[in-house]
Automatic annotation (TrEMBL):
GO CC annotations on file: cytoplasm
Known catalytic reactions: a D-aminoacyl-tRNA + H2O = a tRNA + a D-alpha-amino acid + H(+); glycyl-tRNA(Ala) + H2O = tRNA(Ala) + glycine + H(+)
Main location: cytoplasm
Name of the gene this protein is made from: dtd
Organism: Acinetobacter bouvetii DSM 14964 = CIP 107468
Subcellular localization, as worded in the UniProt entry: Cytoplasm
Designated name of the protein: D-aminoacyl-tRNA deacylase
Length: 146
């Protein structure tokens, strides 16, 4: 399971000209789910994201997590994060979990995130999403859990 985190001043997901999810200051998370990933792994990753300190504290250092910074969390499913890209000139999506299984796990992870943090928004799994964001910094991190 992989998560690409971007610290944002604002972000939103638009599907069919309607806003599906939107946050102001916070974390935009692109979430890739692979074959063999589990709810336990996902919960570990969500916990890490919520505790990850990459917002400026009073001293201007990356010392605050999203809660301490008063931010929001926007979760967007993105199977392309699971692509193998080491060989050739075309991504191999074989490592990604099949969509029907991934959707169920993604929905469980969204539920878990909402139980742990009050300001959680999402995209729509499998939809053609337009993601708008203002990256803050830019600050971007790639997180994985075993």
């Amino acid at each position: 399971m992989r998560a690409l985190l971007q610290r944002v001043l604002e972000a939103k997901v638009v599907v069919d000209d309607a806003t599906a999810g939107e946050i102001q200051h916070g974390i935009l998370v692109f979430l890739g789910i692979g074959k063999g990933d589990t709810l336990e792994k996902g919960q570990k990753l969500i916990d890490k994201i919520l505790k990850y300190r990459f917002f400026d504290d009073e001293q201007g250092k990356m010392g605050w997590n999203v809660s301490q910074a008063g931010g929001g969390l926007l979760l967007v499913s993105q199977f392309t994060l699971m692509a193998q890209t080491q060989k050739g000139l075309r991504p191999d999506f074989g490592p990604a979990m099949p969509p029907s299984e991934a959707k169920a796990l993604y929905e469980q992870l969204v539920g878990y995130a909402k139980s742990q943090f009050e300001n959680v928004q999402t995209g729509i799994f499998g939809a053609d999403m337009k993601v708008h964001l203002v990256n803050d910094g830019p600050v971007t991190f790639n997180l994985e859990v075993e």
